[in-house]
Write a structure and sequence with these properties.
- The protein is α+β, with helices and mostly antiparallel strands and 443 residues long.
- The chain is built from 19 helices and nine strands.
- Helix 1 packs across helix 2, helix 7 crosses helix 12 and helix 15 packs antiparallel against helix 16.
- The radius of gyration is 27 Å and the shape is elongated.
Length: 443
């Protein structure tokens, strides 16, 4: 006879509440049932063996475990009716972090109400911002949506969608970033969007190497689905309800009407693939929480690639979706086969390699990573330097508006950023550009 689903749901809730040791599970089951049944300790041991040491399971996973557990079904078949539940356990689930997460100094939040209080908003607003039912991606007024959208067409024909959260949601995401995500360490090979690291530290291990391998991950942020983000928050120890709400505020699904404004989309197959990719709930490129979550959820990828590189005496670093490997003569001999193994690991971890951007760069060619030339010392490509110098010179001679051909809303800030980048990489060249920038008469 199939176990009563109402009873199974209640027992699953009891198993999930509190610590996951056998003794604690037996104690909660005994309290719920009013007596210590003989089948309860063996069931607790099987439950702990099935789920201990892993990310906190979802309630539905525990229900499935009970429904298909042979010992539980055998006991249930001896009863013609559902056993009485002596005490309903209504207390919230406790924090259950995995072993590594116990060292993270993150705030304990054990219910939806506690999360709303921590964020400083009403629980109704919390559910609206999290939008777990996906109402924001359905047809409706853009004023009620939490994101603004901007579609960028790349020279390669690919599409990049900037999804910028509106001010109210952005403040909540910044609270999650500073209060939770910034307290979790990232892999040592990760250099993008990490305090104290930069493009310069990303390139530094590869300067002066015999050969440099560059790889690029395709659709980096949209690759991280909501389920992956929810699972990561449960890894921290947060109960399912809290993890789902946190993930909901950090992910989104793009409304289909956003694509109606796109003209000249290039390859129709790529355009259709992009629409499908963004229609699923994902990390938005533009949210303050997305870079940190992407880095943290890529920890296993970084571990595997760093281990592969170390096995052949090579260096590995990652800056967002840019992967870089480098080494000496021995690495140069096996770099072709190495790139195949690296691509295989990337795909096993759920990412896709943009093979058209894969480059094997030896000392005889310009070894360029993230806009920086790494052959002998970090430097700016001569072509890029000359082009920026010409723009600054023409701004002095003909006025700044004459050079703003791409229509930047704040052209001065745009040039300021480009000059600062050169100063970071090559202070001497950056100083010459800075003097030109300071000589411009802004209109």
């Amino acid at each position: 006879m199939r176990p009563n689903l109402r009873f199974v749901e209640a027992l699953a809730g009891a198993l999930l509440t509190g610590e996951s040791s056998v003794e604690a599970v037996v104690e909660r089951g005994t309290h719920m049932l009013g007596r210590r049944w003989r089948w309860l300790p063996p069931l607790a041991r099987r439950y702990v063996n099935a789920f201990s040491g892993r990310t906190r399971p979802r309630r539905r996973d525990v229900v499935q475990f009970l429904l298909y557990d042979k010992g539980f079904r055998r006991w249930w078949s001896n009863y013609s009716h559902a056993p009485e539940i002596a005490n309903w356990l209504v207390e919230p689930q406790r924090m259950q972090p995995v072993a590594a997460a116990k060292k993270w100094k993150i705030p304990p939040i054990e219910s939806a109400g506690a999360l709303a209080e921590w964020l400083g908003i009403d629980i109704a607003y919390l559910e609206w911002f999290a939008d777990l039912k996906g109402l924001g991606s359905k047809k409706g007024s853009s004023k009620l949506r939490h994101y603004s959208y901007r579609v960028l067409m790349k020279d390669s024909g690919n599409i990049r969608l900037i999804e910028a959260p509106k001010q109210a949601l952005k403040k909540l995401q910044q609270r999650i970033l500073s209060g939770i995500l910034d307290k979790i360490p990232v892999h040592s090979a990760t250099h993008g969007f990490v305090k104290g690291r930069s493009i310069k530290t990303f390139v530094a291990p590869h300067v002066g190497q015999r050969v440099v391998l560059r790889m690029d991950l395709r659709d980096f942020f949209p690759t991280f689905r909501a389920a992956r983000i929810e699972s990561f928050f449960r890894t921290m120890g947060y109960p399912e309800a809290v993890a789902d709400l946190l993930a909901g505020m950090c992910t989104t699904a793009t409304p289909q009407d956003v694509w109606k404004k796109v003209r000249g989309a290039g390859d129709p197959v790529q355009f259709w693939e992009s629409r499908m990719t963004y229609s699923r709930t994902h990390l938005p490129q533009g949210a303050p929480t997305s870079p940190a979550l992407a880095n943290l959820c890529s920890f296993r990828l970084d571990c595997r690639l760093a281990g592969l590189a170390a096995a052949v005496g090579a260096h590995y670093t990652r800056y967002a979706d840019d992967l870089a490997f480098s080494g000496d003569d021995d690495f140069e001999k096996r770099v072709d086969r190495f790139s195949i193994h690296a691509a295989s690991i990337v795909m096993e971890e759920g990412f896709a390699v943009n093979h058209r951007k894969t480059r094997i760069m030896r000392q005889g060619v310009r070894q360029r990573l993230a806009g920086i030339v790494a052959n002998q010392h970090p430097n700016i490509a001569r072509k890029d330097y000359d082009r920026l110098k010409a723009i600054l010179t023409n701004c002095i001679r003909h006025g700044s508006e004459s050079q703003n051909r791409e229509g930047h809303a704040n052209f001065r800030a745009h040039l300021e950023g480009r000059v600062s980048f050169v100063e970071m990489v090559n202070p001497a060249k950056g100083g010459r550009l800075r003097r030109l920038l300071d000589a411009i008469q802004w209109e």
